[in-house]
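Researcher: Please translate sequence to structure tokens.
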Amino acid sequence: MRPSSSDRLAAWRGLARAAAVALVALAIASGCVMVRPEEREFLADPAMTFGAEGTAAAQEEHVISNREGSYGGSAVTGGGCGCN
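Model: Translation complete:
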């Protein structure tokens, strides 16, 4: 006797569900990494900051402060009167 179409559909849904659970488990397991203490120094480097260009921005600000003879003003709001 042949299985009905609803039985086959249920079998495919079960297989798809099992594959999805396995994929999620694999994704979660791949994110667990042990970092040794001596490696943390390199991971905490400002150059590793996502999207901030940490080292380049600091070097550029240093050059501008030396050229202009002033420091800061890039992250401070206000009109210079001392009121924020």
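Researcher: Any highlights?
Model: Residues 1-30 form one domain.
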